[in-house]
Amino acid sequence: MVSLIQNAIDGNTEAIESLLLQSQPSLTRFARKFCATPDDVEDAVQESLWIIYRKINSLRTSKAFVSWIFQIVRNECYALLRHEKFALDHIEISKLDYLDYTSSTD
User: Which of 34, 59, 72, 89 has its CA 20 to 30 A from that of 5?
Assistant: First the structure.
């Protein structure tokens, strides 16, 4: 596995694809701990795989690969949660505005 990771870091496309395919099930299980819905899990893992594919050459050592990919997934899950919280807060504010307008008496 170490040589596969090193080949991926060195830019071997087949090695990168192989690593992504091997890693996806573990990343999906991990994302389920942090994401609210199955759709969020899928989105977080898909985005994470894309980030890993694009940035693997920035990884300095193959020993850091596993912790690096799980950190990426965790960050993507948190980003989705922040986005959902923002959307929910915005919806709640909109509902309050609507209630204010409908309850006012003329």
Answer: 34
